[in-house]
Structure formats: C-alpha cells, structure tokens
Amino acid sequence: MTQTITVEGMTCGHCEQTVEEALQEVSGVTDATADRETEQASVDGDVNVTELVQAVEDAGYTASA
C-alpha cells in the first residue's frame, strides 16, 4: 500500500535523503521517496501513517497526513 504525506521544510537534495532515510527506518516500510518541489513523501509498505509523520518530525521536519 502506498501512502503520501506532506513534508514541509525540505530545501535541498540532502533534506530529501534525510526524510527518505527516516521513513525507511520505520518498521513495515519497503520504500520511501521524498520530493521537496511538491513537499510530499510517498511511502510503500504496511505502516500506520502516524508513525510516518512522527519519523519525519523526529528528523526535524514538519509533516502531516
């Protein structure tokens, strides 16, 4: 299942990478991609969206479902 969350605060490629890595560390995530242009991250896997939001926020960005 693919879920999309909004991520604010990404300004460069390194930011995208940081968000992707944070999301991929969540149990159940099989793939994650972040796009600073659209301010969104797409996540594949069986995981609760609140866990995704928390992982992004723990990485220092603002996220919402």
TrEMBL record:
Under the heading Pfam families, the entry gives: HMA
A GO molecular function for this record?
metal ion binding
Q: Where is the HMA domain?
A: 1-64
Q: Where is the signal peptide?
A: none
In terms of InterPro entries, this protein maps to:
HMA_dom, HMA_dom_sf
Superkingdom in the source lineage: Archaea
- Name listed for the protein in its UniProt record: Copper chaperone CopZ
Q: Which organism is it from?
A: Halopelagius inordinatus
